[in-house]
Amino acid sequence: MELVFQNLDLFLFLFLLALGFSIGRILELRHYRSIRQREQSLADILAFTNRFPPNPVDRHDVRLVSGAVVISSDYFKQFVAGLRNLVGGRFRGYETLLDRARREAILRMKEDAKRAGYSMIVNVKIENTSISGGRAGTMPSFELLAYGTAIRPARSA
Amino acid sequence: MSNILVSNMELIPGRRITSHLGLVQGSTVRAKHAGKDILAGLKNIVGGELKSYTDLMQEAREEATMRMSQQAASIGANAVLNVRYTTTAVTMGAAEILAYGTAVVLE
Asked: Is this complex scored with an ipTM above 0.90?
């Protein structure tokens, strides 16, 4: 027991590392499952990066739709990222983090369009901002924003 | 301001632009309160979505869009086209959200 108190810093660090690794992993798997499910249920909402809709002549109703998510790294990933910086190369932990956030943002944009009664989104843009400002010692967190113009043939003549 | 049409396309299909009134913009700088910041700090250990920040940014973006629409209305436009959003972290825990676009009159 005395050993624990003498090395409290070390034990706290290991505890946070284990917590980040285990819970972070569970949350990630759960999030991916939910993303896949919702991607399938929203597959009928089409999203394009085209600047104009397929038929740019007829009258259309338009509406700006957006979806955003702020996501943060976990303690374990940040620690591994620190090590990874020494040797460089690909870092899967952050790749999945950003991938999840981006897909989530797109899903929320589609949900926004669906709620408003639209089934097509054109001119989709995706933007990524670092919220923590990249300051040393802070946990990296990002905002992912997806926005575009929802469009449908005009209902009134 | 709901009568102002806001879109990030450069044209609205089937509608003619009768006049072009130049750039309009709206921005807001937001910070969250300390309580939420502490909770977010705890959330940082396990990672994942920071819900309070997401809400904050969403709210800020709506505010910026509204200010842009107000400016457009004040110069007599009925639509803002080619709208873009940018976000910049000003300091730790505060961000500026800017919305800008071209004010036009649609027939």
From this structure: no
